[in-house]
Amino acid sequence: MTSRIMLVLTLTSTIFASATAHAQPGVHTAKTSAEVLDLIRKEKLDLILPGAMRDNNVDMWIHVTRTGDPDPLYPHFGSTSGYLIFTDRGDKIERAVFGRGGAVANIDIRGSRAISRAVEGYDYRTQDPSVYDELTNFVAERDPQTIAVNFSDWLAIADGISYTQYKKLETILGPKYSERIVSAENLITDFRVRRTIREVAGMIEALEIHRQILERSLSNEVITPGVTTRADVGWWVKEQFYKRGLTKGYNTRTGTPGVVYSAVSDESTTRSPDYVLQRGDFLSFDNGVRYLDYYQTDFKRNAYIMREGETSVPAPIQLAFDRAMDARKIIRTQIKVGKTAGQTLADIIDALEAADYIYTPFTDRSPEDYENLQRALADTDRSGFSIDLHSEGNNNGGMETVGPSVAAFRSDRDHLVIQENNLFSFEFLVNTNHPDRPGRPRVLNIEGNHIVTSRGVEFLHPPTERILLIH
């Protein structure tokens, strides 16, 4: 596996060097972005799909889409309409399209123009149902024992088929083959989370762009204490995205353009975008980059605005940060390829509790989560912790995230196994009591986007190692 990682690093340095030749570092032209996406899509089908189908005992995957109804798998297939059919023929995965194939390359079989027009909805009221006989016969000739279709009750990205299109597919297949339909959710999960080298390289590019912008935003280049508002910082970041062609960057938990979260000098917490940042404020900024219309990043940095005469972070805040860094070292040792998300969470809890931390489960419900940790940490100088290691790369970190996710409130993914080259958000919270604010533990949220290989967790970008200082 060493050679694989070396290839990633070499490829990434070459790609990034090429990108910096443009007016803005990391910005692709329309042509180069299309070329990169084309390569990723081809390699996903060539290198990832066969294993994803066979490991999930899928003989045929019928992916149904419809013009005007956005497909959750657009990043992989482009704009499709109709029936993408992937069949395991033993020596290869055959690719057939009945309709419009979008960005799918090397198609082996194409349906007739008549079925393509029927799929698009031409002459719908007078349409002859027999136009779909060629699709019926195609499936019957291959006689698949298992047919995966894009529906799922719990995984949104695998639920792209509409009710009407599902019923229509049942009619086309007939009773015999309709009984062989299963959800494509596990297949799609593996197809999505198993990464090619080019995917990993692209993620590294996106993360470095994100890091540079994020760290600049939490500096005196952008923030003037007593003048700059939280929204000002968010808009500055948004403008940087815009200049680099990253106009689809997202913003976490707020309708404003990525405003920074602030634990302010009076020890309360504010989320108002109009709040003016002051000396003594402790900041946490969570944002992300949408890169090549394919990648999504999601990580944060922490900063402190120094009071007059201060030369470093106050000791209580530094203590809370140091305990978070110690916890990260412990957590990192428990994340391994081959373990399920559920087992990983259990092992992390055991390891941190053995190191004298207190488990304060995060349920993503505010303010209940903070009230729970206040009770758990009452009358103790021990630190509490909560975990949210969610899959990343094509996700935004929400509950629709695809892949193994280690968190108490993502238990529906407990059964998923961490696989080689798993891209994930290394996010956790360490909560430590502050002597100057009794009963109100300081929350340190640490997050970076990294990778799990056979060697364990490897950092894809320089991780958080210090609190950024603003003078």
Structure, explained:
The protein folds into 2 domains: 41-190, Creatinase/prolidase N-terminal domain (Creatine Amidinohydrolase, Chain A, domain 1, 3-Layer(aba) Sandwich); 195-470, Creatine Amidinohydrolase (Alpha-Beta Complex). It is 36% helix and 20% strand. It contains 12 helices and 19 strands. Helix 12 (368-376) links the parallel strand 13 (358-359) and strand 14. The chain has helices at residues 2-19, 30-55, 74-77, 113-120, 133-142, 163-178, 185-193, 197-217, 230-243, 315-333, 341-354, 368-376; strands at 60-65, 81-88, 93-100, 109-110, 147-149, 181-183, 261-263, 269-270, 282-287, 290-291, 295-296, 299-305, 358-359, 384-391, 406-407, 422-432, 442-453, 456-458, 468-470. With 471 residues, the protein is an alpha/beta fold. A 6-stranded mixed β-sheet has the order 4-3-2-1-5-6.
Strand neighbour order, sheet with most strands: 4-3-2-1-5-6
Give the count of helical stretches.
12
Q: Could you give me the name of the CATH homologous superfamily of the largest domain?
A: Creatinase/methionine aminopeptidase superfamily
| Strand residues, percent | 15-25%
First-residue to last-residue Cα separation: 44 Å
Output the CATH class name of the largest domain.
Answer: Alpha Beta
CATH topology of the largest domain: Creatine Amidinohydrolase
The total domain count is 2
Bin the helical content: 25-40%
Unreliably modeled segments: 13-25, 249-255
Q: Averaged pLDDT, please? A: 89
Given helix and strand content, the structural type is alpha/beta
Q: Tell me about the biggest sheet?
A: 6 strands, mixed
Under the CATH scheme, the architecture of the largest domain is Alpha-Beta Complex
How many beta-strand segments?
A: 19
- Estimate the global geometry from the Cα principal axes: elongated
Radius of gyration: 25 Å
